[in-house]
Amino acid sequence: MALGIQVFGIVFGAFMLYMSFLQWKKKEFTFNEWAFWSLFALAFSGVSLFPQILDPVITLLELGRKLDLFIIIGFMFLIASTFYTYKVVRKVQKGLDELVRQLALERAQEPDLFPKKVNQKTKREK
Question: Where are the domains positioned within the chain?
């Protein structure tokens, strides 16, 4: 059973390595982003291949199983990534609000852009 999980971990690490490389080649990742995700994929593969590496950490933290460590790290990663995403969205939202405000003020000063509404019915409504 453990061999199947190890193979799955190595295949997943190789897939992540390949995907991060593709994103870097498409110029969607910077070199630093590519390096981070590549190191993450290699570390994941290494831990999958040699799980005994985690024994000192498990003993130090007094955890019952290695899976407990991964669950804790997973929750920490999800909380941190959610916070980061929220921070980025708020920054973009504030910038968009400011842009809309500036455009509205500029267009309000130019009366030709917004013709006054006329209460005329169209031919269909008559």
Answer: 1-49, 67-111
